[in-house]
Design a protein that fits this description.
- The complex is a heterodimer of chains A (about 450) and B (about 120).
- Chain A is of the alpha+beta class.
- Chain A folds into two domains: about 325 residues, no CATH class; about 110 residues, Alpha-Beta Plaits (2-Layer Sandwich), CATH 3.30.70.
- Chain A has 13 helices and 18 strands.
- In chain A, α1 links the parallel β1 and β2.
- The relative contact order of chain B is 0.31.
- The longest helix of chain B is centred in the middle third of the chain and has 7 residues.
- Chain B is elongated.
- In chain B, β2 and β3 form a beta hairpin.
- Chain B has a single domain, classed as Alpha-Beta Plaits (2-Layer Sandwich).
- The chains are: A alpha+beta (about 450), B alpha+beta (about 120).
Chain lengths: ~450, ~120
């Protein structure tokens, strides 16, 4: 079983909503290498699963990644023809639905029928899990209706599915780096307590999981951090060796850059304690990690260590959380800032007692501030000539939240001179709480579709 | 090189680059030296206390700094600075993606001898 040949893993999506033309150059590079290769798509942020559950309520066949067709259509036939296996969490709230759609798509494309595996066990939203969640959450258990509850499961069922011959592994919630560790486990045959190797491949997964954030996305800062051809960023490929060390690279001819700076930024992204990066599979430790340029757009990560995996799994619970309302109106020219500030005062008076109101002056101070308005209050009044007032509040009651939308709209006629360009939005809100449950509470596994 | 140059006060972005990530109501901000020669200055001046002052309006519950000297990088974790996080904040930038640039405005004292290592305009 133990394979020593380098495994290449390309990542063609880092979130739901990522570019859908990313995969083709990655797949060409993977096939061109002539070596074992896997393609992953990471499409689940913290709230994406709750949105997918809501979609499934109104349409039972939905609930998987809405862009599934657009992501797969350009590359599915080539991947099947050349043995590039696909692993993704694009199953979201309906992995089985996604798997069936992939089979249909392969047929439409005239490709061979893929062996598709569905990973299960992450979804804890059913009534049979409610007591366990209530116990784990204690006082944090939401009173409002629960929309989704999912455990972050690990790489084991992905590896098992690949060993069973799956061409495509469709998951719901799994820990993002497990999308990379799973194929590495299946390929190299590491033991599940080979903590150092598991940790190294996990950090390779961490570098890949946000797609182009390691190849020049979320990085460019003109004059300080310039990125060539930002509009055509290449998506990353990790070359993983039999010890789990990786080299990050990208397809030739694509934009972006991979250097020690892009890799260090992504290595620390969404990390807490660098000595203990917790995943379902292993606790990774990067305190002795090294990041070294190994060639143009090639960076090698070494020195990652691993410790025994945590005894419990993290669960995210999303619940209905009332309504969010926001509205904006613009002022320009002489005394624009003073007029925008006056409009804000009008909103404060009209909406007094409804809910805490946040006001921003876009063009003056609108991002670094706090919901309580301390930052904005500390900014001296200036004479900005192009200012957009933004107001936002949330309320459990839709009609109460709607009042903000009405009051901002009314500023057209009732507010200061020259106010224009009103835009408003009223959206249901989702809250999130998380907890830890014992591994035994989660029955993870996979099935191969016939 | 003239080592008797007067010390300069410059924004942190002349010494380091940075990226923000978020989990719930917690933000983490990396600070990575442009050059190894600047690392000791970062350790001495980008302290938990200095970061807490820079984020005072967000009322951080706790600021924790983790040093990674072999990468000339530090990871700064700020608890409770996202007004509830992506699900609860009223902020336009509820993830806090822009917060690295608030930290990069932190003033840092630089001995004149280290000025050649600073990024940006001379």
């Amino acid at each position: 079983m133990a394979n020593t040949q380098t495994l290449r893993i390309g990542c063609a999506a880092g979130f739901s909503g990522d570019r859908t033309d990313a995969a083709a150059p990655v797949v060409r590079a993977l096939i061109g290498s002539g070596q074992p290769a896997v393609l992953i798509f990471e499409t689940l942020a913290e709230r994406t699963l709750a949105l997918a559950q809501l979609a499934r309520r109104t349409q039972p066949d939905a609930g998987y990644e809405p862009l599934l067709d657009d992501l797969l259509r350009p590359v599915l036939a080539d991947c099947l023809a050349h043995g590039v296996r696909i692993v993704s969490n694009f199953g979201a709230a309906n992995p089985l639905g996604a798997a069936r759609r992939i089979q249909q798509l392969a047929q439409e494309l005239g490709a061979r029928r893929p062996r598709v595996a569905v990973v299960h066990g992450d979804d804890l939203s059913g009534p049979q899990h409610r007591a366990a969640l209530a116990q784990a959450l204690g006082a944090a258990m939401p009173q409002e209706p629960v929309v989704s509850a999912n455990a972050y499961i690990g790489a084991q069922p992905i590896a098992d599915a690949l060993r069973a011959g799956a061409d495509i592994v469709v998951c719901g919630r799994v820990a993002d780096p497990s999308l990379v560790l799973g194929p590495a486990l299946a390929h190299f045959g590491w033991k599940m307590d080979d903590w150092d190797r598991l940790a190294r491949a996990t950090m390779a997964g961490h570098l890949l999981e946000c797609g182009v954030q390691v190849t020049g996305g979320y990085f460019a800062d003109p004059g300080y951090k310039d990125v060539p051809d930002l509009a055509r960023l290449g998506y990353p490929i990790a070359e993983i060796d039999a010890d789990g060390h990786c080299t990050i690279t990208k397809p030739e001819g694509t934009g972006g850059r991979i250097d020690e700076r892009t890799v260090k930024e992504q290595l620390l992204y969404e990390l807490h304690d660098p000595a203990a990066y917790l995943t379902p599979d292993v606790v990774a430790d990067i305190t002795a990690a090294r990041v070294e340029q190994a060639g143009p757009d090639r960076v090698r990560l070494t020195g990652v260590r691993g410790h025994a995996r945590p005894p419990s799994l993290k669960v995210n619970v999303c619940f209905e959380s009332g309504w969010f309302a926001e509205g904006e109106i613009s002022y320009a020219g002489a005394r624009a800032e003073a007029r925008a500030r006056l409009a804000g005062e009008v909103l404060r008076e009209r909406l007094a007692g409804v809910a805490p109101l946040r006001l921003d002056l876009i063009g003056v101070a609108s991002v670094f501030g706090d919901d309580a308005g301390r930052w904005l209050a500390a900014q001296a009044e200036g004479d900005a000539r192009d200012v957009r007032l933004r107001a936002a509040l949330q309320h459990t009651d839709q009609a109460a939240a709607q009042r903000l939308v009405r009051e901002v709209t009314a500023l057209y006629c009732t507010g200061p001179a020259g106010g224009g360009g009103v835009r408003t939005a009223l959206r249901p809100r989702l809250g999130t709480v998380s907890c830890l449950v014992p591994r035994e509470a989660v029955a993870e596994g996979f099935v191969l579709l016939d | 090189m003239n080592t008797d140059l007067n010390p300069l006060t410059v924004p942190l972005y002349r010494l380091a680059h940075s990226r923000t990530g978020d989990k719930g109501n917690r933000s983490n901000i990396s600070v990575i030296a442009w050059h190894p020669a600047l690392w000791d200055l970062l350790v001495a001046q980008v302290t938990e206390e200095a970061v807490a002052r820079q984020f005072a309006q967000r009322r951080p519950g706790r600021v924790t700094r983790y040093l990674l000297p072999q990468l000339q990088a530090m990871n700064i974790v700020l608890d409770g600075v996202l007004d509830g996080g992506v699900n609860d904040a009223l902020n336009l930038d509820s993830h806090g993606k822009a917060l690295s640039f608030l930290l990069l405005d932190l003033p840092v004292q630089v001995p004149g001898a280290l000025a050649p290592y600073l990024a940006g305009p001379r």
